[in-house]
Amino acid sequence: MTEQKPEADVAGLSYEEAREQLIAVVGRLEAGGASLEESLALWERGEALAARCEEWLEGARKRLAAAPGSKAGIDPGR
Fold first, then answer.
1. What angle do CA 8, 10, 13 make, to 5 degrees?
2. Per the domain annotation, does 44 fall within a domain?
3. pLDDT of amino acid 68
4. What is the pLDDT of residues 51-68, one digit of tens each?
5. What is the pLDDT of residue 2?
6. Residue 77 counted as domain residue
7. Is residue 7's pLDDT more than 80?
8. Which DSSP helix (H) or strand (E) runs through 51?
């Protein structure tokens, strides 16, 4: 059996899917009770999910900045 990397299936997730899965991972980590190995796997999965969310948000910022009528110099992240 081959071990799959935590980010392997994250690339195809929508922002909402990645965010919901990230919330679930954080909840499981906060609840405690997981073994060290499971906690590390959850942490790695959470990192991959957070990166996917950031990709979506950065893409949205770029689209907003490029939209007709957008004001140059305004940070769309605010």
1. 145
2. yes
3. 87
4. 999 999 999 999 999 988
5. 41
6. no
7. no
8. helix 36-66
